[in-house]
Design a protein that fits this description.
The complex is a heterodimer of chains A (331) and B (344). Chain A is mainly α. Chain A has 12 helices and 2 strands. Chain A has one domain: ABC transporter involved in vitamin B12 uptake, BtuC, CATH 1.10.3470. Helices cover 69% and strands 2% of the residues of chain A. The longest helix of chain A is centred in the first third of the chain and has 32 residues. The N and C termini of chain A lie close together (8 Å). Chain B has a single domain, classed as ABC transporter involved in vitamin B12 uptake, BtuC. Chain B has 344 residues and is mainly alpha-helical. Classes of the chains: A mainly alpha (331), B mainly alpha (344). Chains A and B meet through helix 5, helix 10 and helix 12 of A and helix 4, helix 5, helix 11 and helix 13 of B.
């Protein structure tokens, strides 16, 4: 366990743990550097690589945000949440509906979608997931899978399978560092970083955050010192779901909205969670960026293969060689 | 999911296996008579039940009996479908041979990936995610490989009339049903014999307490890999049968995540870790899909908005899955068996 688990020491007076275990991080940055060089040699076009790096970083920020919610839930509740992507999709359809029916701007619908998803997450945790507490891991996995299938197919049943789009009129390409990106992608990236920052402050600097980290480190111990563990479970699941909701809204302007789109985000987010280290907020953000870059650079290094293939390849390597992730510690 | 009670009495275990074998054979003989009573529409439901049953039986060996939770059985299913499909389309090889090749390939793939995952000590969620990653990698490969005809997939060349050698019969022929039934019975007999064998007993011991089994000299890695190989082979056979029944495969259809889910469902609904659980689960799930499809074609009054939409079948599956996990985590058959045993 990474970040979340480092709470155990009493708060005041203890020296702050160094944020970054440096070697794995350096190796990761080094490998990304190598990938950039290989991409440069393969294409011979710095402009292409610059574009890929920019696109990868921007998308990676969003992956980080999706993974942030997942890593919180994984780290605190110890649940492999297969419903995360479907919940993200629900937020996308909320945004689509608000825009299509009432002409509400997608960024304004954050104010609706995020609280809604927060409540939905709380309800799902209290109503369903809480009942499988203490059961084998597979049961919880299957339960979240059931929720995911239910949500996805409810969306399919009510909206049909035809992809929808939401295009704000002001969403135009912007030049960034001699490459081009849509304004919406830049906003999504900045939004993701802002939310990650907020979450980090919440976890590290507030009493509530301390309680959440305490539950992650040792639920029974937290209970003994007076933390309401069941409440923290519900709250964490709700916060994680709200992150998925925010990510869902932020990506709507540049992806097509369809019932199964969340599956992709869900799988990529699992990769990011493992890469970043279970329960680590900086790990999720950094892992997101790495995976975003992997996808884009892999796409131009192996043009005949799907960009996702390199993502899975990296995933399997990380699982085998460093299952605790960049920011995790060996258990 | 540890659903079966820890094995304490080997003799009782073998006797129970014998009884299961009797149930399988008698049930199979009765099921063979079904086409006499069923119409063509019901027969296609019965064939879907058989595909579900084969898939679920395959998954159950690795995850129920072996205790290694797989979320990537689509890999084996797809290998079975594509091996037979490729050999048939490109080299005119009989699907029966393709079926064997597919089973061997899938078993080899399972052993290699399983070895890697176990060598690096992946457990629980991480093991499941690794199997998912391997299945997705195969799907992405198949999507971009000329050998597999990329995203278009493979169409089985049609033969005139029926041919046992080419495993192809006119639409509505009961032969498909009998072939599927035969394969399912064969798979079940294999599973029962495996559980009666020393290796199968080791597999259960390893599942229930790996360290204890290892300390008694059980070669844990070998036992686990054997279990995976059997599971992969059965699932690959399901893949070949699917190919021959629908005469068409593409990467999303056979390597997609939904196949892995369909492998899990029958076992979980019926009872994980029991031989007959996946069969019971399949018998519930198959007709449910048909029922919901009918509901969408001709919705009852008041539900007219359902007309021509899709998604209801999976919604029903999902609701059932949630219900089973919350109310009957041992599954329908598993719970019934436990209840009967407690009464005695």
């Amino acid at each position: 366990m990474a970040d979340l688990a480092t709470v155990a020491e009493p708060a005041a007076g203890t020296p702050r743990r160094r944020l970054v275990p440096s070697v794995p991080l350096l190796v990761t940055v080094g490998l990304v550097g190598v990938a950039v060089v290989v991409a440069l040699i393969r294409t011979g076009s710095p402009a292409t690589v610059r574009q890929a790096v920019l696109t990868g970083l921007l998308l990676g920020g969003v992956y980080g945000l999706v993974a942030l919610g997942l890593t919180l839930i994984f780290g605190v509740l110890d649940i492999v949440n297969f419903a995360h992507g479907a919940l993200l999709t629900v937020a996308m359809y909320v945004t689509y509906t608000l825009s299509d029916r009432f002409g509400i701007d997608p960024y304004v619908s954050l104010l609706v979608a995020v609280p809604l998803l927060f409540l939905l997450g709380a309800a799902l945790q209290r109503g369903l997931i809480d009942r499988t507490l203490g059961q084998p891991l597979e049961n919880q996995l299957l339960l979240t899978l059931g929720i995911a299938l239910l949500l996805e197919n409810a969306l399919l049943l009510s909206y049909g399978g035809v992809p929808k789009t939401v295009n704000p009129s002001y969403d135009e390409p912007v030049r960034v560092l001699s490459a081009v990106a849509d304004l919406s992608r830049i906003l999504a990236f900045l939004g993701a970083l802002a939310i990650a920052g907020l979450l980090y402050v919440l976890l590290q600097r507030t009493r509530l955050g301390t309680a959440i980290r305490a539950v992650a480190a040792n639920p029974r111990g937290a209970q003994l010192v007076g933390v309401d563990v069941r409440f923290i479970f519900m709250l964490t699941f709700a916060i994680g779901t709200a992150c998925a909701g925010a990510a869902g809204v932020l990506v709507v302007p540049f992806v097509t909205v369809e019932p199964t789109i969340g599956e992709l985000f869900n799988i990529v987010a699992f990769v990011v969670v493992v890469l970043g280290g279970l329960g680590s907020v900086p790990g999720a953000v950094l892992g997101g960026l790495v995976i975003g870059l992997t996808e884009q650079l892999g796409g131009i290094i192996f043009p005949s293969q799907s960009p996702l293939l390199s993502v899975f390849f990296v995933f399997v390597l990380v699982l085998f060689l460093r299952p605790q992730g960049i920011f995790g510690r060996r258990q | 999911m540890t659903t079966t009670a820890p094995v304490t009495d080997t003799v009782a275990q073998v006797e129970r296996a014998d009884r299961t074998l009797q149930v399988v054979l008698i049930g199979g003989a009765l099921a063979a008579l079904l086409p006499l009573a069923l119409g063509p529409a019901q027969e296609s439901v019965a064939i879907r039940v058989l595909i579900f049953a084969l898939l679920g039986t395959g998954w159950n060996v690795m995850s129920g009996l072996g205790g290694m939770f797989s979320f990537g059985h689509a890999a084996y299913f797809g290998l079975g479908a594509y091996s037979a499909g490729y050999l048939l389309v490109e080299h005119d090889v009989s699907p029966w041979i393709g079926m064997v090749v597919g089973a061997v390939l899938a078993a080899a793939f399972g052993v290699v990936t399983g070895f890697l995952a176990l060598r690096y000590k992946l457990r629980g969620a991480y093991f499941a995610l690794a199997t998912l990653a391997f299945a997705e990698m195969l799907r992405l490969f198949a999507l971009n490989l000329d050998l597999t005809n990329k995203a278009i997939g493979l169409n089985v060349p049609l033969v005139r009339g029926s041919s046992w050698w080419k495993l192809q019969f006119p639409a509505g022929s009961s032969n498909y049903y009998w072939v599927g039934l035969g394969l399912t019975l064969l798979a079940l007999v294999c599973v029962v014999l495996f559980m009666r064998s020393r290796m199968g007993q080791y597999a259960l011991a390893v599942r229930d307490d790996e360290d204890a089994a290892a300390s008694l000299g059980v070669d844990v890695m070998r036992v686990k890999l054997t279990t995976i190989a059997l599971s992969a082979a059965i699932t690959a056979v399901a893949g070949t049968f699917y190919l021959q029944y629908y005469l068409f495969v593409n990467p999303d259809l056979v390597f997609g995540n939904s196949v892995s889910i369909q492998a899990i469902l029958p076992a979980v609904v019926g009872g994980v870790g029991t031989v007959l659980g996946p069969i019971v689960g399949a018998m519930v799930l198959g007709p449910l899909a048909d029922l919901s499809a009918g509901l969408l074609r001709n919705p009852p009054p008041g539900l007219d908005f359902l007309q021509g939409r899709s998604g209801l079948d999976i919604m029903i599956y999902a609701a059932l899955l949630i219900l089973i996990i919350l109310v009957l985590p041992k599954g329908l058959y598993g719970s019934a068996r436990a209840w009967r045993r407690n009464r005695r």
